[in-house]
């Protein structure tokens, strides 16, 4: 009996230990991605063959293809991930029962809520790179729809994604849907305010420009009263319909990594040390970027603005889930304690019951899987320019604003009222 129990436990431990394979492949893939060796990184994901990790593999492959500028192939993967997420809206009863008896890494990865939303954000960014702005706008709307469902239907204390909302505003403005742009810019400000973020002066200028285009005199005057003197000067210069702009969409740094720690809780079956997941930040050297251009008579000394932070959001969402995680852990502990007691009674062996308990609790571990190829933050910088041809360069900045390095970008010809986008990813 002891031999069979040990063999069974070892088989389960071996199966769940394979869950660490994804983390190893993803960590190495990051280094390959940073060196532009995306083909080599993609090949390594052949080793991620557990069905439980299928979603993570697809998501990482989509990111690698995007970094390689294979946007259509990337979107194929993202759409595949979206279909999986739609069919796994919640765990089945069978899956929950399996989760009570086995390591949580043996369960199909469902994705954190903010990760599910980012699938559609990346679809939008890829469509934008493919010059399909209508499809990009559809996906931006999808981001907002999903987040609204989390908030209104699931009653989760989340905020909408400010980066996606602002991107939608830009796309509306580019399509000359100025009223929708006004609504989206205003919503972006409300999201940032709800997050207690510092006022974004350039966003006031965006809103004022749309208020002027729509003839919203009261709203325009109210915004002007809130503007600093420099913002008023910028608005005066860029409020005309001929003003063009270039928008930097900047992805910086590494997303946080999940780890596991044990925390003591009391239950009817006794005191238990439960494994709970938490996020740990990963070092990021480059924190911001600054877009510069020539001719520089209209230079704006501005760096990129963080509109969505995966580190901050991940921690906030995981903290909300903590109560649910503790409840699941208590259930797992109760099941394991019951099994161990039952083994002792059936075999009339207290030692065997203790051994069963030790083996079953050894199988318990928090699910530390997460989408590891995400950036730490999503940022925006908007440069207002007169129509014409410009040579751009990008400065990469550390947390104190010191320039780490600089690179030249392509020249861009801007027409009257045109909005162009530059997408950049930093890996340092």
Structural summary, described in words:
- The protein is α+β, with helices and mostly antiparallel strands.
- The chain has a single domain (2-197, 242-425), classed as Serine Threonine Protein Phosphatase 5, Tetratricopeptide repeat (Alpha Horseshoe).
- Helices cover 54% and strands 19% of the residues.
- The chain has helices at 2-17, 20-34, 38-44, 54-67, 71-87, 93-101, 113-129, 133-152, 162-174, 178-194, 201-214, 217-226, 229-238, 310-347, 350-362; strands at residues 244-252, 257-267, 270-280, 288-294, 305-309, 377-385, 388-397, 403-414, 419-425.
- α10 (178-194) packs antiparallel against α11 (201-214).
State the CATH class.
Mainly Alpha
Order of helices and strands: HHHHHHHHHHHHHEEEEEHHEEEE
CATH architecture: Alpha Horseshoe
- Gap from first CA to last CA: 53 Å
- Strands, total number: 9
Coarse structural class: alpha+beta
Strand content: 15-25%
Strand order of the largest sheet: 5-6-1-9
Radius of gyration: 25 Å
Q: What ranges have pLDDT less than 50 throughout 5 or more consecutive residues?
A: 4-13, 90-102, 351-362
The global form is globular
CATH homologous superfamily identity? Tetratricopeptide repeat domain
List keywords for this structure.
428 residues, alpha+beta, Serine Threonine Protein Phosphatase 5, Tetratricopeptide repeat, four-stranded mixed beta sheet, three-stranded antiparallel beta sheet, 9 strands, 19% strand
